[in-house]
Amino acid sequence: MKHILRGAILGAWLLVGCPQAGWAQRLLDVETAAAEQAIWDTYSAVVHLQLGEAKRFANAVEADPNGAMAAAYLRSAIAMVQAFITGAPSDYDAFWVVSDRLKAVVREQNATQWQRYVDAENNIYRTAAHMEAERVIRAAWAGRDAYKQLKALHKDFPAMKEPMKSLGLLHIAIGSLPTGYQKLLRIV
Q: What span, in angstroms and rounded, lies between the C-alpha atoms of 85 and 161?
């Protein structure tokens, strides 16, 4: 069960979770071309499962004057992929550290549509990590938070495509759960 859920979420993220053109500038609000290129290089390295390289590129993003949130977001994605690939408790521990750091960085920012989106994406990652650790109630709450955030974003900014992509990933994750867990989510 764990391997099926992990594989479904990781596969879906690798297929559709990567950004489209212009995404880095809009979403992560970086100022320099070098930081934008480092974001693309990070995603390329993640898709090729070169996670050491991805971490190096994410570190380069932080050099941008507005790079703190972008770097924290990328590190959260890298840590999630690393944990899903290995399944090692130490990698999940590392994920929680960077995920908590991302939440702190987002709270420090103004609540723009893009910061709200990053927080919702992080909640999707947290949902998957809770499910992997068989913390079903925590997973349900994190998934519920992500769902509500993404629905609100879509309502407030209907032209913004990213929340719909993330809702699709969330639906894939929920659809890969056993029926009993799906019923629990309907209750929550």
A: 28
